[in-house]
Design brief:
Elements: H1 2-22, E1 31-35, H2 44-47, H3 81-88, E2 107-109, H4 120-125, H5 138-153, H6 158-162, E3 165-169, H7 174-182, H8 187-191, H9 194-213
Parallel strand pairs: 1-2, 1-3
Helix pairs in contact: 5-9
This protein binds 2-acetamido-2-deoxy-beta-D-glucopyranose (4 copies).
Residues 120-121, 133-135 line the site of one 2-acetamido-2-deoxy-beta-D-glucopyranose.
């Protein structure tokens, strides 16, 4: 039953943004706050300090060549789904959190290419290979969000601050399973961890909800 559910969700999302876009009036969203992995990273991984990550392929062409004309840190030659959502809502491309000069008044992106749902410490504790071996998990991205929140809100609380923000959560999980494959584990061994990986995504959503409503 999974593929039909995924297809329905996608249709819903498309219909929703089409509605927001085709109305002629301005979108009700004034910012986008994004979490995830390479499906959403707009530059965080390449801004991660060397020498932890030397020789990243993302820093070179053909990444970026068909739309931006140069590598941006996106894991594609063009735009991400997140970029099309931003364009449809009339908002700027979502700037990466690690861009210290970034203007986050219309959004910020915590996504990091390669990010797992569960922590680095946990995966390495299971003797799994994590590549890149950095603290970029959903948990770590939520810590970043919590740190940035005062400067995003400037004294406003809960819905006063985030009532017109679009939160984009994920995708998460693919890199957790990739760790099992990199470590030569079987699909059966990886399957045993599915409940835990799904749980950490849903807990992450709940923590985010709590941080945005307190
Ligand atoms: C479309 O515009 C109408 C009238 O301005 C408004 O009531 C409605 O909420 C808008 N819908 C969307 C999806 O922006
Ligand atoms: C930051 O971005 C906002 C919204 O896109 C814009 O209105 C504002 O002028 C920008 N600020 C600076 C300092 O560039
Ligand atoms: C990740 O975080 C843990 C816990 O804070 C720390 O002990 C570890 O050194 C960090 N690893 C890297 C690669 O930064
Ligand atoms: C996984 O298996 C391949 C092929 O047998 C081998 O070359 C590689 O070193 C193995 N990797 C690990 C982490 O065991």
């Amino acid at each position: 039953m999974r593929p039909p559910h995924a297809a329905l969700l996608l249709l819903f999302i498309l219909a929703y943004f089409r509605g927001a876009y085709s109305n002629g009036s301005r979108s009700r969203f004034t910012s986008i706050i994004s979490f995830g992995d390479s499906f959403a990273d707009t530059g965080n991984l390449v801004m991660w300090a060397d020498p932890v990550l030397p020789g990243l392929l993302l820093k070179n062409l053909p990444y970026g060549e068909t739309f931006f004309g140069h590598p941006t840190g996106r894991a594609t030659d063009g735009r991400l789904v997140l970029d099309f959502i931003a364009e449809a809502l009339g908002l700027p491309f979502v700037p990466p959190y690690l861009d210290k000069g970034g203007n986050f008044s219309a959004g910020v992106n915590f996504a990091v290419a390669g990010a797992p749902a569960v922590t680095l410490q946990y995966l390495q504790g299971q003797n799994l290979i994590v590549n890149p071996p950095i603290n970029s998990s959903l948990y770590d991205q939520l810590v970043w969000f919590q740190k940035l929140k005062p400067s995003l809100c400037k004294g406003r609380q809960g819905t006063d601050c985030f009532g017109s923000s679009l939160f984009v959560m994920g995708e998460f999980g693919a890199n957790d399973y990739r760790s099992f494959l990199l470590s030569n584990r079987t699909v059966e061994q990886a399957t045993a961890y599915v409940p835990q990986i799904v749980d950490s995504v849903s807990q992450g959503v709940e923590v985010l909800y709590m941080l945005c409503t307190e």
